[in-house]
Amino acid sequence: MALFTDDDLRPEPSTPPERIRPKRSVVVGWSFVGAAFVLTLVLALVPAPYVIEQPGPVFNTLGTDQPVGSAPAKDAKPLIVIPSQKTYPTAGSLDLLTVSLVGNPDSLPSWFEVAAAWLTPSKAVLPVDAVFPPGTTTQQSNQENAQEMVDSQQDAIAAALNELGYTYPQEVIVKQILKGSPADGVLKVNDEIITVNGVHVPGVQTLRDLLKANGSGKPATIGIIRAGAPSTVQITPEKSGPTVIVGIGAGMHYTFPFDVTIQLNNVGGPSAGQMFALGIIDKLTPNKLNGGEHVAGTGTIDNEGNVGAIGGIQQKMYGARQAGNSWFLAPQSNCDEVTGHIPAGLKVFAVKTLDDSLAVMKALSSHSGTAALPTCPAS
């Protein structure tokens, strides 16, 4: 008989089950999910050292101070008022464009907002220091923009009245003198500049042109009026980049023959000057300047009618198109930023002067065709 020991009677031990391990692809996948979640939080919460430019409100200079497309407001006021003069009915629109800024040194946009703006053609992303120079507060920037708007309105009134043939005192005034510059100790603040080398100076641009023509290294004879007394001084301009300077900040002083009031709040900068001038001319002339068309535009202007470059023109073109405009007046000096960025359905005319803009208005109102007018190429 076979004998069994206790060991023989024990059941054989079973093989321990394998420990189930997650597949490597699943682990890697969840790692990516976690990283993406963290990245999303960073993009959403961490401020970026940039600001975003995007199309802002559009205003019709022939209409009210309310943005185009907004609900009628009981307190809306005409944007341009000329109370003592006969004004005439207008039609269509002469729209000025604005740029809305997202962010400032005190409240920067998130990386998520910046990334989204980079992918949007109507928006631009700029380093915050390019818009708000170091040491400049948001309040200071707003004050500077407000003053530029006031100055541009005065220059626009002057340009319009000059175009219409009005005569009135227009003085080029020394408003600032740079220490150590050629003008330091020769000119004084509030001096009126009358001539350069015997040539009359009607505006700041002519002053710049005459000094450039004089060149550096040889004295220019500058006729001035100081405290009511005329005299001449000798100043030798110095070279500064492509031009020459004497080291002054010059500005205009006007004594208009009648009041022109431009009522537009919470908009700063000088870029509406051209459209203000066109709006004033339209109101003071019997014919509808634009022929009833909807025209938008931008550009600084001076009393001599020179149209200058502005910032944010790509955003302004999109704003014009969104407001229903098909025609756009752009400073010729901005064409490099315009070409390749024109929204579909918008034709952009390149203008250097107020007369160029009026030529566009004449072509539109007479339906004589615009093919011969200078444009910023579409591509």
What is shown here, in short?
The chain has 379 residues and is α+β, with helices and mostly antiparallel strands. It has helices spanning 6-9, 24-45, 111-118, 128-131, 138-163, 204-214, 273-284, 313-322, 335-338, 354-366, and strands spanning 50-60, 80-81, 93-102, 124-127, 170-177, 192-196, 199-200, 220-226, 229-235, 238-240, 243-245, 248-254, 261-262, 294-297, 300-301, 307-308, 327-331, 347-351.
What does this structure look like?
The chain is α+β, with helices and mostly antiparallel strands and 379 residues long. Among the domains are: 54-67 and 77-99 and 144-164 and 258-366, Ribosomal Protein S5, domain 2; 170-254, PDZ domain (Pdz3 Domain, Roll), CATH 2.30.42. 30% of the residues lie in helices and 23% in strands. The chain has 10 helices and 18 strands. The chain has helices at 6-9, 24-45, 111-118, 128-131, 138-163, 204-214, 273-284, 313-322, 335-338, 354-366, and strands spanning 50-60, 80-81, 93-102, 124-127, 170-177, 192-196, 199-200, 220-226, 229-235, 238-240, 243-245, 248-254, 261-262, 294-297, 300-301, 307-308, 327-331, 347-351. A hairpin with a 2-residue loop joins strand 10 and strand 11. Helix 2 (24-45) crosses helix 3 and helix 5 runs parallel beside helix 7. The longest helix has 26 residues, at 138-163. The N and C termini lie far apart (107 Å).
How many beta-strand elements? Answer: 18
Largest sheet: 6 strands, mixed
Provide a count of the helices. Answer: 10
General shape: globular
What portion of the residues fall into strands of 2 or more residues?
15-25%
Low-confidence stretches: 1-13
**Cα separation of the termini:** 107 Å
- Top CATH class of the domain at 54-67 and 77-99 and 144-164 and 258-366: Alpha Beta
The residue fraction in helices comes out at 25-40%
Compute the gyration radius: what is it? 32 Å
Helix/strand class: alpha+beta
For this structure, the CATH topology of the domain at 54-67 and 77-99 and 144-164 and 258-366 is Ribosomal Protein S5, domain 2
Order of helices and strands: HHEEEHEHHEEEHEEEEEEHEEEHEHEH
Q: Average pLDDT across residues?
A: 90
- Spatial arrangement of strands, main beta sheet: 4-1-3-14-17-18
Q: Which CATH architecture of the domain at 54-67 and 77-99 and 144-164 and 258-366?
A: 2-Layer Sandwich
